[in-house]
């Protein structure tokens, strides 16, 4: 009996309508962490709240080579996008998979990212903060978006996960002293370690999900306030009006003012009490010392890079290097296989093949074993060039150094021993290949 190559569109639509989850605007943003994704990724994260965010999403000009599974229940793997005579299709690469291949349109694989400037400006205005004065602090995971003028405290916004947020806060407190306001999407990552760093600064944390309401409006609607009543009228024009652009509007609720008032009282108390202030400065000094040690780890990696200890990565094929870095980042072969959209057994077969492909590939196996000693519980961010498979072999040593720096930063207690062990392990093989490509 003949069967279709992919699930029919009517069946897919029925499944899709059943699986669209309840909207979670702030939780969805927390999940995406300002990353790029196809529209299906954004829909999975935000559910029925996606229309609220769409006015803030912008195409990046890039296309994804992978697409989320459409099966129900999902196989939890991303399917490989292939350009065939039938057009674009997405195929599950898992072994023994029951997932059907399905067709895609070019628009389906376009990557979208959040317009952070417009997003941050909307939040700042809604919360009543002033614009940043001078050059605002800005990194990928933590950005200054305003100033709480009442106490002259900077306001920062972060959607990062716990580990990334810890690293960013450590960098921040090493560069500045004094109280600040930290905004996050939800309170999900506000754990003891994060609170410990901010407490030393007298900082305040505000979860946006607790103080802001979100709605969507069409531009061209004028609002008139008459007494205590509000009336909306459409602006008129003698010529036909173009389609109205939609925008996201944030509105603060009554929860914000008590939070800011309490923060202002605490800041005044800290600034008035010299003994308390001295304790805060001592805690800041301790944080700075810890961060200085982590920077020493980075310097050690840079020396290893200059010594040619990562030159072996120039001798491996890009696909193997991508798999190698993903295992280091995820900390587990099974997790890495899911991130790569391939079967667990397929990735393990690849690793077994490395043992027979020469010294460079065997050195990757040694580093994978070393990763187990660092620990599997934490993950680090992968460089975009590695994720997209665009990294040139000449860039591999530097990319690996950055990745290892992230791993060592997660283990502040034993980074010195781990980096020394890594250097000793690699230096033993220095004579087996030239350090220049």
Topology:
Blueprint: H1 9-19, H2 25-32, E1 37-38, H3 39-46, H4 50-53, E2 57-63, E3 66-68, E4 78-84, E5 87-91, E6 102-103, E7 110-114, H5 116-127, E8 143-148, E9 153-158, H6 162-175, E10 181-184, H7 192-201, E11 204-207, H8 208-211, E12 212-218, E13 221-226, E14 229-234, E15 246-252, H9 256-272, H10 274-306, H11 318-330, H12 333-340, H13 344-354, H14 359-374, H15 384-387, H16 396-409, H17 415-427
Parallel strand pairs: 9-10, 10-11
Antiparallel strand pairs: 1-7, 2-7, 3-4, 4-5, 5-6, 8-9, 12-15, 13-14
Helix pairs in contact: 2-3, 6-7, 6-10, 7-10, 10-16, 10-17, 11-12, 11-16, 12-13, 14-17
In short, what is this structure?
By secondary structure, the chain is of the alpha+beta class. It has helices at 9-19, 25-32, 39-46, 50-53, 116-127, 162-175, 192-201, 208-211, 256-272, 274-306, 318-330, 333-340, 344-354, 359-374, 384-387, 396-409, 415-427; strands spanning 37-38, 57-63, 66-68, 78-84, 87-91, 102-103, 110-114, 143-148, 153-158, 181-184, 204-207, 212-218, 221-226, 229-234, 246-252.
Which short descriptors sum up this protein?
disordered N terminus, 437 residues, four-stranded antiparallel beta sheet, 17 helices, 46% helix, globular, 3 domains, 18% strand, alpha+beta
């Amino acid at each position: 009996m003949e069967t279709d190559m992919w699930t029919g569109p009517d069946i897919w639509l029925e499944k899709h309508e059943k699986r669209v989850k309840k909207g979670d605007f702030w939780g969805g943003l927390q999940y995406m962490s300002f990353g790029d994704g196809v529209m299906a990724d954004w829909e999975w994260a935000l559910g029925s709240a996606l229309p609220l965010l769409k006015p803030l999403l912008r195409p990046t000009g890039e296309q994804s080579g992978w697409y989320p599974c459409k099966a129900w229940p999902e196989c939890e793997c991303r399917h490989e996008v292939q350009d065939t005579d039938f057009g674009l299709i997405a195929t599950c690469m898992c072994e023994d998979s029951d997932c059907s291949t399905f067709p895609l349109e070019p628009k389906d694989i376009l990557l979208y990212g959040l317009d952070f400037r417009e997003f941050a400006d909307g939040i700042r205005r809604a919360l009543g903060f002033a614009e940043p004065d001078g050059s605002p602090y800005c990194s990928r995971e933590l950005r200054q978006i305003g100033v709480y003028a009442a106490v002259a405290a900077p306001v920062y916004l972060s959607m990062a996960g716990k580990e990334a947020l810890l690293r960013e806060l450590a960098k921040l407190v090493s560069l500045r002293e004094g109280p600040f306001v930290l905004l996050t999407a939800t309170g999900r990552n506000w754990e003891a370690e994060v609170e410990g760093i901010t407490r030393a600064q007298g900082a305040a944390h505000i979860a946006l999900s607790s103080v802001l309401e979100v709605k969507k409006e069409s531009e061209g609607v004028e609002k008139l306030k008459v007494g205590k009543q509000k009336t909306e009228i459409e602006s008129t024009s003698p010529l036909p009006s173009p389609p109205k652009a939609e925008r996201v509007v944030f509105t603060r609720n009554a929860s914000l003012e008590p939070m800011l008032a309490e923060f202002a009282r605490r800041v005044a108390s800290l600034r008035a009490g010299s003994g308390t202030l001295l304790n805060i400065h001592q805690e800041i000094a301790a944080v700075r010392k810890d961060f200085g040690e982590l920077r020493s780890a980075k310097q050690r990696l840079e020396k290893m890079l200059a010594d040619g200890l990562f030159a072996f990565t120039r001798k491996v094929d890009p696909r193997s290097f991508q798999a190698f870095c993903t295992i280091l980042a995820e900390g587990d072969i099974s997790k890495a296989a899911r991130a790569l959209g391939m079967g667990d057994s397929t990735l393990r077969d690849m690793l077994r093949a490395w043992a027979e492909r020469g010294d460079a590939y065997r050195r990757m196996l040694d580093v994978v074993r070393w990763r187990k000693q660092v620990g599997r519980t934490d993950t680090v961010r992968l460089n975009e060039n590695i994720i997209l498979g665009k990294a040139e072999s000449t860039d591999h040593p530097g990319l690996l150094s950055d990745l290892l720096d992230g791993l060592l930063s997660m283990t502040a207690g034993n980074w010195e021993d781990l980096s020394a062990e890594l250097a000793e392990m690699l230096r033993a093989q220095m004579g087996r290949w030239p350090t220049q490509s």
